[in-house]
């Protein structure tokens, strides 16, 4: 039935955006994670998404795999940090909190749009069933 396919598409969208929100929240939590210069910097988490189909018809989206960005680091001088090397250098991830907050807002709004679409389809179907008496 068409209603179940459209609900499945919205549900798959909610799953994708929930996974994205989880990744962004990890990134926000680690945006200021300091490491020593002999360790890799925190790697920004991302999600890779692809379209899904069932019986040749669109069936939404699916997270192909969680991915990590190439670890970029911004070494900086902080000789007072306990992880500083002999030259006083430490490493921080090359992520912007404002970029991560933007990603979070986009994912939240897209998740909510899928919830609204799913609710509207469900309510419309309930009205159709209720009108068949």
| Alpha-carbon Rg, integer | 22 Å
Largest sheet: 3 strands, antiparallel
Percent helix among the residues? Answer: 40-55%
* Sheet with the most strands: spatial strand order: 1-5-4
Query: Are there runs of 5+ residues with pLDDT below 50, and where?
Result: none
Gap between N and C termini: 20 Å
Give the amount of beta strand, in percent.
25-35%
Structural class label: alpha+beta
Number of strands: 5
Number of helical elements: 2
**Overall 3D geometry?**
elongated
- The topology string of helices and strands comes to HEEEEEH
> What is the overall pLDDT average?
84
Brief digest:
The protein has 133 residues and is of the alpha+beta class.
What does this structure look like?
With 133 residues, the protein is of the alpha+beta class. The chain has 2 helices and 5 strands, in the order αβββββα. The protein has helices at residues 2-29, 97-130, and strands at 35-36, 45-54, 57-68, 73-77, 89-93. The strands form 2 sheets. It has a 3-stranded antiparallel beta sheet, with no helix packed on it. It has a two-stranded antiparallel sheet with strand order 2-3. α1 packs antiparallel against α2. The two termini are 20 Å apart.
